[in-house]
Write a structure and sequence with these properties.
The protein has 344 residues and is an alpha/beta fold. 26% of the residues lie in helices and 24% in strands. The protein is built from ten helices and 15 strands. An eight-stranded mixed β-sheet has the order 11-10-7-12-6-13-15-14, sandwiched between helices. A five-stranded mixed β-sheet has the order 2-1-3-4-5, sandwiched between helices. A two-stranded antiparallel ribbon has the order 8-9. The longest helix is centred in the N-terminal third of the chain and has 14 residues.
Length: 344
């Protein structure tokens, strides 16, 4: 059965509702219940760990029997396990829902399988509606489920000829105000923001996420990686979140510790040494390259050695989007082999 227009509108609304929930160890999920006539009769979203899931939150707003014959539109496959709450697939079956439309499959070995349970109970099920948007909302959680570590975005700004700074080391500002504003919005969407000690010592960044001079409500946890000590008066020590310091070059251990702390997404700001290390280790799930129409020359490259000795070993990327930002251009890309892991 094809997804109809009312269900498409309901999925768009469910995706909006999903973003109202907190980021963390659980995914952000939204749900909309439609009557047999296609009218919205209830909405819900997941409010955080230990609270009812989105489907149950929506069903709780209906009188007993009101969901009989209804359609549930959900951004993630209804779960099929009992944790702090019961299985949502069973809740929908017990409520008498006759159809479920969802965006993304649940990748969990324990929580997945809700669609099969629904079908076995005679419920019509359609999957994949607006999956790309749903994936972008919970990509950190999905990466954590599949790989057991946070989702990593590696960002840098560069000149048209691939330089991150001029010969004297100055780099403020390669890109214009629109590109810098875009960076701050993306910082605010991350759980943590990582830099190397070299960047801390040379640039003294605050690593806050700002809208002009105003701090965004969500501030990523600052993470400093490297063996050199951070000065007591460094701007990062005045960050609204308590900084985390890792005296190591083992990025896998850093990500494992961040994952254990509930961090789902990491925004790597650099500099070139740290960005290159994440890419060389195969830990970059997304690349953001802000490209300015300037030429700098010299040897201060945006990336250093990433372990490519020949063209056959090149790290191939898939461009997800080219985004103009004033005079600058943002390339949003992901490793080509990520497509084999099931990402849209």
């Amino acid at each position: 059965m094809a997804v109809n227009e009312a269900e498409r509108r309901a999925m768009s609304r469910a995706l909006e509702l999903a973003t109202l929930g907190p980021r963390g160890v659980n995914p952000q999920v939204g749900a909309v219940i439609l009557s047999s006539d296609g009218d919205v009769i209830a909405e819900g979203w997941h409010h955080g760990a230990g609270t009812p899931h989105a489907e149950v939150d929506a069903l709780s707003k209906l009188a007993p029997g009101a969901a009989h014959g209804a359609t549930a539109v959900v951004t993630l496959e209804p779960c099929n396990h009992t944790g702090r709450t019961g299985p949502c697939a069973l809740a929908l079956i017990d409520a008498g829902v006759s159809r479920v439309v969802y965006a993304l499959d649940d990748p969990g070995a324990v929580s997945g399988g809700g669609a099969d349970r629904l079908r076995s109970a005679g419920v019509s099920v359609d999957a994949g509606e607006q999956a790309g948007i749903a994936h972008s909302i919970i990509d950190g959680w999905l990466t954590a489920q599949r790989l057991g570590r946070p989702h990593v975005t590696v960002k840098w700004a560069q000149s048209l000829d691939g330089r991150a700074a001029a010969s004297d080391g100055s780099s403020q500002w390669i890109t214009g105000p629109q590109a810098r504003a875009d960076v701050h919005r993306r910082r605010a969407a991350a759980d943590a923001i990582a830099v190397g000690t070299g960047t801390v010592l040379s640039d003294d960044p605050s690593l806050t996420a700002r809208d002009g001079d105003v701090l965004f409500e969500n501030q990523p946890v600052p993470v400093v990686i490297g063996s050199r000590p951070t000065p007591d008066d460094a701007a990062i020590r005045r960050h609204p979140q308590t900084p985390l310091f890792y005296d190591t070059r083992d990025l896998h251990s850093v990500l494992a510790d961040l994952h254990s702390r509930g961090v789902q997404s990491v925004f790597v700001e650099g500099g070139p040494t740290l960005a290159s290390a994440f890419i060389a280790a195969g830990l970059a799930d997304r690349v953001l390259a802000y490209i300015a129409p300037v030429l700098l020359g010299g040897d201060r490259l945006a990336l250093t050695d990433i372990g490519v000795g020949s063209i056959d070993a090149a790290r191939r990327l898939t461009i997800d989007e080219w985004l103009p930002l004033g005079a600058d251009l943002l390339a949003i890309a992901s490793p080509a082999n990520h497509l084999e892991e099931g990402a849209p």
